[in-house]
Amino acid sequence: MIYYDDVFMKHRPPSYHPENPRRLEIIKKALEEKGLWKDVVKPIKAEISDTTVVHDREYVEFVVESCRRESFIDSDTYVCKDSLESALVAFGCSIQCVENAVRSRDMHLALVRPPGHHAGRRGKAFNAPSLGFCLFNNVAGAVSRAKEFFDEILVIDFDVHHGNGTQEIFWNDKSVIHIDFHEYGIYPGSGSIYETDGSKINIALPHYCRDDDYIHAWIEIVEPTIERIDPEVVIVSAGFDAFKDDGLATMELTEKFYSFAGGKLSDFSVVAVLEGGYSVGLERGLPAFIEGYMKGYFVEDVNPGPRVVEIVESLKRILRIEPFS
């Protein structure tokens, strides 16, 4: 099921910015061409007070006031007069997806803007230089709702940038298992494999990784975690900016990884909340993820690079040293 509303197009930058309404135009066109733009559900708008479940009231008030002023709130992140409405519908949509996922095993895809995984409890998280285009943490809202249904929650973030906001909000909450694939050494600068409370797993990968590198890390790290938790619902921070030539990073993923990821999650109800992806990643990566979930996808002969094998083995040792409680 796809959750979408034209309200997400109203969050507009004053001049060129990579996070802009055209992102959703790219997605809609790509899904229409593949016959996937169907079963579209109108999202529910959250109340401002709902966001204080994951954000401090002072930060929420800062966002509200900033939207009234229509200004950049930091070097990366803009707001306009309609940004608050877009952000509240995005936050409400993510919660709505969880509620429906509990009742219906399916992929519940929240095509929302603005994105959210860099927004921490007080805004900037883990000393990040900015909010990274984000206002409210939509996935954190989804997680908080899911905690009302389940004892343990699994979050998988494969956006190319570290989901520092989500990690910070649930730091030391070991009921939230947060697995984060990201290109290490780019924005926001956090997410080392050693940065863990035992339930936050950072798959910090080197530049120029390809499909087999990500697939190897998934098989070695994600699959055992899924087997242990046996979740009914998996929440995904679904960014597609690790796709080759998407524009903001150096990773070189193709449809292969996203189809694989979708296929690996097809036994579960999935809440997939849109994060990054700015061009070809949205056009090709996102449809591949949906089709992998719908049809399945099998991979054999995985050949990761030696540096990735080394990182994954180090991470496996770290997780044995700091086991889940």
Explain what you see.
By secondary structure, the chain is an alpha/beta fold. It has one domain (2-321): Arginase, Chain A (3-Layer(aba) Sandwich). Helix content is 38%, strand content 12%. The chain contains nine helices and eight strands. It has helices at residues 22-33, 57-69, 83-103, 138-146, 164-169, 211-229, 255-264, 280-295, 306-321; strands spanning 2-3, 40-41, 107-110, 153-157, 176-183, 200-205, 233-238, 269-274. It has an eight-stranded parallel β-sheet, with helices on both faces. Strand 7 (233-238), helix 7 (255-264) and strand 8 (269-274) form a beta-alpha-beta unit. The longest helix has 21 residues, at 83-103. It is globular. The two termini are 34 Å apart. The model is unreliable at 321-325 (pLDDT under 50).
Keywords:
325 residues, Arginase, Chain A, eight-stranded parallel beta sheet, globular, disordered C terminus
Enter the CATH topology name.
Arginase, Chain A
Q: How much is the average pLDDT?
A: 96
* Spatial strand arrangement across the major sheet: 2-1-3-8-7-4-5-6
The total count of helices amounts to 9
Query: Helix- and strand-based class?
Result: alpha/beta
CATH-defined architecture: 3-Layer(aba) Sandwich
**H/E topology pattern:** EHEHHEHEHEEHEHEHH
Helix content class: 25-40%
Which outline best applies? globular
Number of strands: 8
